[in-house]
Design goal:
Blueprint (H helix, E strand, L loop, with lengths): L22 H9 L11 H5 L1 H5 L4 H10 L2 H8 L7 H5 L6 H21 L1
Helix pairs in contact: 1-7, 4-5, 5-7
Length: 117
């Protein structure tokens, strides 16, 4: 069965709840509860200035945050220009700019906390 060309092995997209770190998601939801209403429509990604210049994708950030993939999140957040266009086009009025700021602030703190241990 492995001889077929269309069978490409991909990394698992399953969430391992034994290693799932939801501290960052809990922090973002505590200070920006509107993030719960995000339906991942992609309007933010489509209008993003940084996304036109780099491989920055706001929808990917939301997905990584919900999956607990915080290790890659800090590098992705650094690409944001904080222009605020994403918040202007959001049909659910999610303050995406604030979500990005909260992720940046708390991920820095969590990284420093993990380095101590």
């Amino acid at each position: 069965m492995n001889e077929f060309a269309h069978l490409v092995s991909r990394p698992s997209r399953q969430i391992d709840y034994q290693t799932f770190d939801n501290r960052l998601l809990a922090y973002v939801l505590r200070y920006e509860p509107s993030f719960l209403t995000c339906m991942s429509c992609g309007g933010c990604t489509a209008t993003c200035s940084a996304g036109k210049l780099t491989d920055f994708n706001i929808r990917r950030i939301g997905l990584m945050l919900r999956r607990g993939q915080t290790d890659k999140l800090a590098a992705e957040i650094d690409k944001c220009m904080f222009c605020g266009k994403c918040s202007l086009v959001c049909p659910r009025d999610v303050n995406i700019r604030n979500v990005v700021l909260l992720i940046k602030k708390e991920s820095t703190r969590l990284h420093a906390e993990n380095q101590k241990v």
